[in-house]
Amino acid sequence: MRLALIALAGVIAAALWWRKHPSACPYGQRFWVAPPHPLITRERLRATLEPEAGERILEIGPGTGYYTLDLGEWIGLEGALDVFDLQQEMLDHTMGRVAERGLTNVAATRGDATALPFDDDAFDAVVLTAVLGEIPDQRAALREVARVLRPGGRLVVGELFGDPHYISPGALRRRGEDSGLRFERRNGPPFGYFARLAA
Predict the structure, then answer these.
(1) Helix (H) or strand (E) holding 108
(2) What kind and span of H or E run contains 80?
(3) H helices present in the chain, as ranges
(4) pLDDT tens digit string along 20-48?
(5) Residue 86 backbone phi and psi in degrees, to 5
(6) 58 with 157: CB under 8 angstroms?
């Protein structure tokens, strides 16, 4: 019993440390992002994003491509999907899966989400799933998202309680509005949801 309590205390301490020190999931721990995601499912993402054929979409922090392959298919060959990550290993992994699926409308770029290397008004939509909380300066990242979104474009953010970097719907709304993004709706319960914001 005592060992179990010590282990639990260690897990809680690690989670609290992670919340105060946001950072990307290392490639060596990619097993955290590979399995099915309860509540923040692909179907719920599609219902919230409402992707259309021919759109240009930016996915920040694709991890190992859990949502990427579906995003690429939803927008069709006439669409374009840009995946953007801080870690080249994650991009290489994702692009390997893209090649296996035979998708030709996906491009990868490495960089920091607080300084996106894309033109103003370049995207119809931006997707961040369990990623925003990993960015130390979230407001700077959201301002960059607002800059690269076309007028009327949408940002979809997915969050799952239990992730040490989880962001509540209320906190997301405040941070989005501070960055010029209007909160439109939430799809799912507060502990596992996709939210849609508009530029």
Answers:
(1) strand 106-110
(2) strand 80-85
(3) 2-20, 42-49, 68-74, 88-101, 138-148, 169-178
(4) 545 566 665 555 566 677 899 999 999 99
(5) -75, -25
(6) no
